[in-house]
Amino acid sequence: MCAEKIDIDFSNKTMADFRYYTKRSITDKRTGGVGRALVVVEKGSDTAQIEYTCPKAKCGHKGVASMPFKRPPFNFECGSCKSKIKIDKLKKAV
Ligand SMILES: [Zn+2]
């Protein structure tokens, strides 16, 4: 089974249901490709669920990943091309 979406019904949720929620674009420094990532941690959960589009131009794989929740950055591997994907800490707004 290869899921493309996080198994959460967002239509029933509000921000208060999440410990952590972020949408981010991710760039591949080598090729300059751009992907996207959504990271959510549900309240009462210690697992970060990540829905992503691989930033590699030739890949563009859409998939999900999960990992124990810790502070960013989040590092994981693309399920298709196995390249390392890093979701950086949110930069401070100036
Ligand atoms: Zn990939």
Descriptive account of the structure:
The protein is an all-beta fold. The protein has one domain. 0% of the residues lie in helices and 44% in strands. A 4-stranded antiparallel beta sheet has the order 1-2-3-4, with no helix packed on it. Strand 3 and strand 4 form a beta hairpin. The protein is globular. The chain starts with 17 loop residues before the first strand and ends in a 7-residue tail after the last strand. The protein binds zinc ion. Zinc ion is lined by residues 54, 56, 59, 61, 78, 80-81, 83.
Identify the notable features of this structure and list them briefly.
94 residues, mainly beta, 4-stranded antiparallel β-sheet, two-stranded antiparallel sheet, 6 strands, binds zinc ion
